[in-house]
Design goal:
This protein is mainly beta. The protein has one domain. Helix content is 12%, strand content 46%. A five-stranded mixed beta sheet has the order 1-5-6-8-9, with no helix packed on it. A hairpin with a 2-residue loop joins strand 5 and strand 6.
């Protein structure tokens, strides 16, 4: 084969374009799955709390059955208000949106709350990249979590 011929450079150019196309090909994206979960709320004591007690934290704990327990602390609610978590999973990216739910009573007293929920949307034995957005407090955080039994993580929300 002659390295100075037009045929050689034409074939080399075609092979190079096939390789570039192969490497730039987008990863196949699975369809999104969304769920709405209600946070089970617990009212904290009305006593003045320390700064560490009122910090906005997300605590995750992987259970042996493949589910993940999410605990959320440090938000103010009026008695009767609820919080819903909207989870959307696309491949290895999980978005959790915290929104106020139905108000069952009007004009209640404001207090400090914490809540927890068990989520089944986490893939087992997989690392998931999570973005947690709270429209209730205006805070957010971004982190990764691997769903292996008894794995725990704690992250602080920020403005």
């Amino acid at each position: 084969m002659d390295f100075t011929s037009i045929e050689f450079y034409t074939i080399a150019f075609c092979v190079a374009m096939v390789l570039v196309g192969f490497f730039l090909k987008q990863k196949r994206i699975n369809p999104a799955s969304s769920t709405i979960n209600s946070l089970e709320l617990e009212k904290l004591d009305d006593e003045p709390s320390t700064e560490s007690d009122s910090a906005s934290l997300i605590k995750l704990k992987a259970n042996d059955d493949g589910t993940v327990t999410l605990e959320r602390t440090g938000f103010q609610l009026v008695d009767g208000e609820t919080i819903n978590l909207i989870t959307t999973l696309v491949d290895d990216k999980l978005t959790i949106e915290e929104k106020k739910g139905k108000v069952s009573a009007l004009g209640g007293k404001e207090g400090q709350y914490s809540g927890h929920v068990t989520l089944s949307c986490f893939p087992v034995q997989s690392k998931v990249y999570i973005r947690y957005d709270s429209s209730v407090t205006g805070q957010w955080c971004k982190f990764s979590f691997k769903n292996t039994p008894r794995n725990k993580a704690e992250h602080e929300l920020r403005y």
